[in-house]
Amino acid sequence: MAVFGQLTWRGRATIAALALVCVALYWSIPRNADLRSFDPAKMAALETAMWRDYYDKRYLNLFFNLYLSSRGEFGFSPLDSMKIALASANAARTFQPTRSREEANAALPSLVSYYDLLARAAPAPFHAEQAARLELDWWQARREDVPPEIYGKTIAATSAMLYAKTDELMLQAGIERAQAMAFRDQHRNDMTDADWSEIELRLFKAYSKLQRSVKPPS
After folding, report:
1. CA of residue 141 relative to chain centroid, distance
2. Owning domain of residue 56
3. Cα–Cα distance, 164 to 22 (Å, whole number)
């Protein structure tokens, strides 16, 4: 601190500018993000927390947990993680008050932005708008009391686009994730902490199967 105090104003300005550059580089330099690099237990815990945030309309918490999943589980840069979290949280917030498929389309632009960003970490190129439409389709199907075994196949189809492959494990993962959603929908506002723990366990099993499906060869 004493040395810094002895610097001229130009010296201080130079150090401050270098510090800002370092921060900007840390935030913005692309990382080797990979959608296949997630930990099933951490993803299950984060997704459970995000569901609770969504239903309690805690959108700031939802954004934070979305950021953690993008940054910690997929390895995106802080800047890209923030963009992904903003796009996803905005899509969820836009969709929540809608009451029809036509109204739900208002969430589509944010979902397209979300998948455009995710595409940077996908093992192969995919069509972001098509993935976004699949996502929105199962969001709405869930509201229409479509059986989870049905819209779970749409979840699996969305994963198939992201990872450029499909197999029985991926299908099971999609259906099991949908069944965890159906469990929550059955309990609605009567959810207890034990119920949320059950959901986290179900999501862990689903993400474990998804990881086994998409894990790159060592």
Report:
1. 19
2. 31-214
3. 36
Q: Looking up tokens 């179900």, which residue turns up?
A: 202
Instruction: Give domain status of residue 26, yes or no.
Output: no
Q: Is 12 a domain residue? A: no
Among 48, 79, 77, CA closest to 65 = 48
Number of domains in the chain: 1
What would you measure as the largest C-alpha separation in the chain, in angstroms? 71
Flag whether 208 is in a domain.
yes
The answer on pLDDT for 26 being more than 50 is: no
Predicted confidence band of residue 89 (pLDDT cuts 50, 70, 90): very high
Give the DSSP H/E element, type plus range, for residue 46: helix 40-55
- Return d(Cα 63, Cα 83) in angstroms, integer: 10
Q: What is the pLDDT of residues 109-164, one digit of tens each?
A: 999 999 999 999 999 999 999 999 999 999 999 999 999 999 999 999 999 999 99
Helices 40-55/59-68 angle, 10° precision: 170
From CA 73, how far away is CA 36, in angstroms rounded? 9
Of 160, 148, 154, which is closest to residue 133 (Cα–Cα)?
Answer: 154
Instruction: Report the distance separating Cα 143 and Cα 137, nearest Å.
Output: 10
